[in-house]
Amino acid sequence: MGSVFGKESVEEPPHDTLLSRSDATTSYELRKYGQRYAATITYKKTGDKSENSPFGALAKYIGVFGTPQNEGDTSIAMTAPVVMENSNKPTQIAMTAPVVMENNKDDDSDSNKKMMFMLPVEYDSMDKIPKPTNPSVHIEEIPSQTGVVHVYNGKWGEARNTELAKVWHNN
Question: Which residues form the signal peptide (predicted)?
Answer without folding.
Answer: none
